[in-house]
Amino acid sequence: MTSKPNKTPRLGFPSGPAGGWGSAKSVGEVLIREHVPLSGPSLLAHQNKPDGYMCVSCAWAKPAKTHPLEFCENGAKATAWEITTRRADRAFFDAHTLSELEAWRDHDLEEQGRLTHPMRWDPASDKYLPVTWAAAFEEIGRELQAVAPEKVEFYTSGRASLETSYMYQLFARIFGSNNLPDSSNMCHESSSIALPESIGASVGTAILSDFQNCDCIFYMAQNVGTSSPRMLHDLQDAADRGVKIVTFNPLREPGLERFVNPQAPGQMLTGKETQISSNYYQVRLGGDIAALFGICKALIQADDALHEAHVSKVSGSDGTPDDSNDAAAVAFAASIAAADKKHILDHDFISQHTSGFEEFAAAARNYAWEELERVSGLTREQMTEAARIYARSDAVLMVYGMGLTQHMMGVQNVHMVVNLALLRGNIGKPGANICAVRGHSNVQGQRTVGITEKPGLVPLDKLSELYHFDPPRWQGHSTVESCKSILDGETKAFIGLGGNFLRAAPETVAMEAAWRKLRLTVQIATKLNRSHVVHGEVAYLLPCLGRIEIDEQASGPQAVSMESSVAHFHGSRGKAKPASSELLSEPAIIAGIAKATLTRGNVPWGRWVDDYSEIRNAIERTYPETFKDFNKRLFQPGGIPRPLPARERKWVTSNGKANFITPDRLFPELPTEAIGEDVLHLASLRSNDQFNTTIYGYSDRFRGVDGTRQVLFVNPQDIERLGFADGDIVDLITAIDPETRRTVEGFRIVAYDIPKGCCGAYYPETNPLFPLSHHSPQSKTPSYKLLPVRLSRSSHVPLN
Ligand SMILES: Nc1nc2c(c(=O)[nH]1)N[C@H]1C(S)=C(S)[C@@H](COP(=O)(O)OP(=O)(O)OC[C@H]3O[C@@H](n4cnc5c(=O)[nH]c(N)nc54)[C@H](O)[C@@H]3O)O[C@H]1N2
Ligand SMILES: Nc1nc2c(c(=O)[nH]1)N[C@H]1C(S)=C(S)[C@@H](COP(=O)(O)OP(=O)(O)OC[C@H]3O[C@@H](n4cnc5c(=O)[nH]c(N)nc54)[C@H](O)[C@@H]3O)O[C@H]1N2
Ligand SMILES: [Mo]
Fold it and tell me: Is the pTM of this model over 0.85?
C-alpha cells in the first residue's frame, strides 16, 4: 500500500484559471477515484441548498437564491470523500497491526475509506478489534471517572454541528473541565482575540450582500481558488461590476488571478475568464503590518496636506506645504480632491465612533518609508497606489484568511486591518465590513454554542441553572496548552471529536512520543488517520455518521445546523445512505459516553438523541437572542442571521468605541540564532488537493505541481544565492531553538514567484518543524505562516 509507486512528478506546468475545465475535470476524476456511484452527482445538487445538506468542506456563505449547482470543485471532493464506497472494515483492521500502519502516509490511511464499526485497541495483537457500543461507552465512562477533570482534553475539529457541539461542551463542563481546545485555536483565534478589542465583535461583520454593495475589496492572505472556491462567484460578480480587488499575498496564487465559472456553459465554451485581482501586491511573509501602516501613512499624510492647505487658505497664507508634508502627499490629496471625494479620512466617523486615532496616526507618521518598504517588501509607490484606490472607494470590504492569523503577530495583523477600515468608516455600512473567512464548515458556530477553553465566553450561570450543576470557572486549555500538558505528562486522557490532532498541531515528533503515554485516547471519526494509529494505553476508535448521511433516530430523520463565515445559521439534512449500519451519530456517541460517565446534571441525553429539535430548544433557552425561533427558522432560505451589533455601529467594547489599536512593532522579534543570510522564512500552505490533513491526492494544479507534495517553493534568486538549483533535493531545519533538532527531509526545490527571503511548503508535512513555543502570545495561534528555516542538501529521496 505505502509502496504504491507515484507517477513521475510534473512541476512548473502553466496553470489554468480557477474554475473552468480544470475544475470540472477534477470533480469527475474524484468521483471515479472514490468509487462514487452514479447517484453521487445528483446528490451534489442538494449541496448548500435550503433543505439540502451543508457542504462538509468550507464555511462560505450559502445564498438564499442558489445557483442550480451550489458546489465547487473542492466541495465535490469533500462530498466524494465522505460518500465513497470504500470501507476500512473488519477485514482491513484484521489484516494490519497499528505498528505496520504507522509507516503509511496520510493519504493512504484515509484512502481505505469509511470506518464501519466501533473498535478498541488490543495490546496482544496490536490491532483495533471490534467492540460493542455498550462495552465501549462503559469502559470509557469508567476510565474517565478515574481521572481528574483537568487532566482530560475534549478536542473538537470545526465541523461538528451546533447540536453536537452544544452537547459536547455541556458534557465536558458537567464532567468538570473547561479543557475544550478546538481547531479554531490554530485557525482564526487571532481574530477571536483582536476583533472584540477593536470593534466588539467576536466574528467578522460582513454578510453576503456586502459583496454586492462594495466598490472595492482588500483581499488579504486567503487563497480563494483552493480554500473557499464558491466565493469566486461573489468575487467574479464584483469584478464584473468594476469593483477593484486589491490582493496582498506573498505567493503568486493563480486561483486569485483568473476565474472561469464552471457552471456557466457560455463561459466554459468561450473560455471567458474574469480577472479577479485588479492589483496584486506580493507582500513579504509577515510584512502585512508594515504594508498596512504604509497605506495608512499615505492616507494620513495626504489628509494632513489637505488640512494644511485648507488652514493656510483660511489664514491667508499662500498655501505652500511646509517641510513636514512632502510633495507626494500633496499630489495624493489633490488627486483625491479631483476625484470628487470630499475627504481622505472620515473625520466625522473617527470622532463620533472611535478611540485611539491620534496615537495611531502619530505612529503611522513616524515610520520612515524605508523601514516600511524593507519590512513589507513593497515599494512606497505600491503602498501609495493601494491607498489611492482605497481613498477613492466609498465602501471597502476587508477579506482575510490564515496568512494574517497564523503569525506571532496575528492579533496585531487583525488590529491593523480594522485600523485601516476605521480611517474611512469602512465598518457597519452596506459593502463595508470585515470578512474573516472561516475554515471548517461550522468552526464559527462551535464557538457560538460554547466550545471554548475560556469560561468567560460561556453563560455558565445559565448552564448551571438549566442543568443543575456547578460549572468549572477555571481557564481551560487551548490547543497549544493542551499540547504542552500532554508533553509534560499532565494530561491523561484525550477525547477527539473529529480532526487529526497529531498532524494538525505543531511539534509532531515530541507530541507522538507523549501521545503514546496517554492513559486513554478516544477518537470519534469517519476515516482512519495518524492520530488513531498512534494511540494511548486504552484506545478507542468510534466511527460516526457524516453530515451528508441520513441520520435516523426515534422521532425520524434528523437535521443538524451550522453557522457560515458570514454569521448565518443553516439547517442541514443528510441525503445519503449511511456507510455502515453500525455507525452512530455524533450526538448519540456523546450521549452514550456522557451517560456512562456523569453522575450529576439533569440533561435528558436520551430524549435529545431521539429528537434533535429538543437540543435546538435547549440552545435557544441558553442563548435566547441569538437563536430566537431556532427550530421554526431552521431552513429559512439564506439562513438565520446572527445579531451582530458592530454591523449597526454599536461597539460592544470596554469603552463603547471602535478602537484604533497601534501595534508596538512592525515584525515579530526573532531570536538572534534565527537571523542570517542563510535563513528563509517558511509558510506552510494547503494544496488544491487536500482538506487540512486529509490528502485527497498529489496535485496542486494552480501552482503547477502534480505527482508530489514534497516540494519547497523558493524565489529563483534565493535558489542561486544559496548555491542550489531548481529541482535540487533539500532538508529543512528549524532555525529557532536549535538545541532541539527539528527537521523534515527530502523536499524538491521549485522555483516560484515568491518574495526573496520567503519560501513555502505544504502542511502537514512541515509540521515537525514547528516548535510549540512558536505562536502568538495573545491568541496562542501557532505561527504556521512564518518559521525561520535553513536548507541543507539532502541525501534523502522525496517520499513522494
Ligand atoms: N480545499 C480546501 N479548502 C479548505 C481547506 C483545505 O485544506 N482545503 N481548509 C479549510 C480551513 S480549516 C481553513 S482555516 C481555510 C484556510 O484557507 P486560507 O485562509 O486560504 O489558508 P491557507 O491556504 O493556509 O493560506 C492562505 C494564503 O495565505 C498566504 N500567506 C501566507 N503567509 C502570508 C502572509 O504573511 N501575508 C499574507 N498577506 N499572505 C500570506 C498564502 O500564500 C496563501 O495563499 O480553508 C478551509 N477550506
Ligand atoms: N502547519 C500548519 N498546520 C496547520 C495549519 C496550517 O495552515 N499549517 N492549519 C491549521 C488549521 S486552520 C486547522 S483548522 C487544523 C485542522 O486540521 P485537521 O485536524 O486535519 O482537521 P479535519 O479536517 O477536521 O480532520 C480530518 C479528520 O477528521 C475526521 N472527520 C471528517 N469528517 C468528520 C465528521 O463528520 N465527524 C467526525 N467526528 N470526524 C470527521 C476524519 O477522520 C479526518 O481524518 O490544522 C491546523 N494545522
Ligand atoms: Mo482552519
Answer: yes
